[in-house]
Amino acid sequence: MKYTSTRSKITPINSAEAILQGLAEDGGLFVPEKIPKVSLEEIDALKEKSYEERSAWLLGKFLTDYKDYELGECTELAYNWFDITARVPVAILIQDPKNPVAPVGSMELWHGPTSAFKDVALQMLPHLMRMALKKVGETKDILILVATSGDTGKAALAGFADVPQTKIMVFYPEEGVSKIQKLQMITQRGKNVNVTAVKGNFDDAQNGVKKIFNDKKIRDELDKLNVKLSSANSINWGRLVPQIAYYFSGYVELLKAKQVELGDKIIISVPTGNFGNILAAYYALKMGLPVKKLICASNVNNVLTEFFATGVYNRNRTFFKTITPSMDILISSNLERLLYHETDGNYKLISRYMNELNTLGKYKVDKKLKTRLDKIFYAEYVTEDETREFIKRVYDSFGYLLDTHSAVSICALSKYRGKTKDFTPILSASTASPYKFTGAVLTALGQSIDGVDDFAQLKMLNNLTNAKIPRNLAELSDAEILHEDVCNKDEMADRVLKFAAK
Ligand SMILES: *Cc1c(COP(=O)(O)O)cnc(C)c1O
Asked: What are the φ/ψ torsions at residue 322 (nearest 5 degrees)?
């Protein structure tokens, strides 16, 4: 299987190269030339397999330049840190007690080392990269640079820590992250990791990192140190492909729980930000997973809801900070891949849309494309009050605790059912542990958190609900602090060179 760009006709490359390059030279994203097909028999056979084996099977469909034993090794190393053996379990909720044939499966993607769904891919990417370096004959180390507003930084650190031939350096805004997020990062172990606070806000950290990527002088100096810069952001194909696996696994869990029969269609609902997670569900659908509809759930930053309703993507709008911060996004980068596939690879048209997005801040898709998207997607957005209401309602009804993002998905699918009276079984992506957003969850449950600090909140939620505190958060208050460096934004490049020379 070869990969091409969404924006021009390039000489197709294999997956190892796509994973190392991240972004195509024309600014486009790498996409598979053809989407592989799977049969119902293959899906049925996954029933007897572990999550690691299911994942390796799926990776093998796309990463054909990797050997089976290599993919097996990647999935073992990626998922042995997940705190339950099922890795990605599905909890069955019956959404409407009067209608027991309408189950909702909550697919828990947050049993990894940082308690959020990005672990599923970020635990895998470093191993895919390390093997890719060997495949292309690259002997330099790669240095992953990350600017983070909190969660991605820790997930990337946890993934890359002590992975051979890689180094990782994370910059975070000194005052811009929560106490728990900061502690998670500055206690990170590993010989190849560095965490540095930047005096300023997230934009300062991000602009600093962008500047370093674009600075030829720094790249040349790093070259002399035998180090090559790279990024781990969510448009990398190596982050997307591990996500496709769990939709197959989730379907198989519904089969095993006798909620569906082989071949029955399901609906998948996904709380969406950068459009990576739901795009993985789209690939699963295109491969032959029986899926009737994809529900794109957004918060009040509802640029995608409007896009699917009108065909106009318009980023010129007010930006809201919400209790679902991982969905506070106005440019959903991975949407570009969907548009490419649904125009049968019309890279000229995609180039034009992306150019308009860049210069005008908006574009409108043509009728033909809009009609095709309508067949697959249903989009809905959810207010903050509704999000809190659903956390409480689902907890009261089922004793099941949702984080804010996962509640957006459940609320959106409930609106879908209300409007369409379609009671097809639904698989809903649950993207974070409730303990990742403890304050908002406590508030939703009617508790006052005035003056209660982050750690006391964990205990408070535990006392209230008995839900287990994830190990990584429970152990945090006693962990040793290993990274205390703080720098000005104009000192970031220096810090990178110093770390690279270590
Ligand atoms: C990143 C994230 C999302 C959004 O996923 P995308 O792939 O960016 O659409 C949703 N929920 C949580 C908790 C996240 O961390």
From this structure: -125, 180
**Which positions are annotated as active-site residues?**
118
How many CA atoms lie within 13 Å of 158's alpha carbon, on the beta-carbon side? 25
Give CA–CA dist 133/128, Å, rounded. 9
CB-CB contact of 240 with 19 (8 Å): no
- Nearest in space to 502 (alpha carbons), one of 167, 130, 230: 167
Ligand 1 atom 2 nearest Cα: 326
DSSP 3-state of 233: coil
Which one-letter amino acid corresponds to residue 381?
Answer: Y
* Model pLDDT for residues 8-26, shown as the tens digit of each residue: 999 999 999 999 999 999 9
pLDDT of residue 195: 97
What Rg, from alpha-carbon coordinates, does the chain have? 22
Ligand 1 pocket, 275 CB below 6 A? yes
Distance CA 59, CA 384 (A): 37
* pLDDT at 100 (0 to 100): 60
Ligand 1: which atom is nearest the Cα of residue 280?
A: 7
In the predicted structure, residue 98 carries a pLDDT above the cut 80: no
- Going from the C-alpha of 119 to that of each of 239, 240, 242, the distances in angstroms are 10, 12, 10
The answer to whether residue 81 scores a pLDDT higher than 90 is no
Contact status, residue 3 vs residue 119, Cβ threshold 8 Å: no
Average of pLDDT values for 59-70?
98
- If one compares 382 and 178, the residue with the highest pLDDT of the two is 382
Q: Under a CB-based contact definition with an 8 Å cutoff, are residues 77 and 52 in contact? A: no
Residue 103, pLDDT > 80, answer yes
Contact between 144 and 122 (Cβ < 8 Å): no
Regarding the beta carbon of 206 and ligand 1, being less than 6 Å apart is answered no
Q: What's the 409 CA to ligand 1 centre distance in angstroms?
A: 11
Of 467, 449, 450, whose CA–CA distance to 395 is shortest? 467
The reply to whether the predicted model has a pTM over 0.90 is yes
Q: What are the Cα distances from residue 205, in Å, to 150, 185, 218, 484, 489?
A: 12, 15, 17, 16, 7
pLDDT of residue 96: 62
Residue 160's nearest CA partner among 187, 181, 138, 191 is: 191
**Is residue 173 classed as helix, strand or coil in its secondary structure?**
strand
* Two tokens, residue 119: 């672990």
Helix (H) or strand (E) holding 197: strand 193-198
- Residue 299's pLDDT band (cuts 50, 70, 90): very high
116 lines ligand 1 (CB under 6 A): yes
Which residue(s) pair with 230 in the sheet? 144
CB of 243 within 6 A of ligand 1: the answer is: no
Instruction: Report pLDDT for 296.
Output: 98
* Domain boundaries of the chain, sorted by first residue: 133-235+480-500
CATH node for 133-235+480-500? 3.40.50.1100
CB 241, CB 151: distance < 8 Å: no
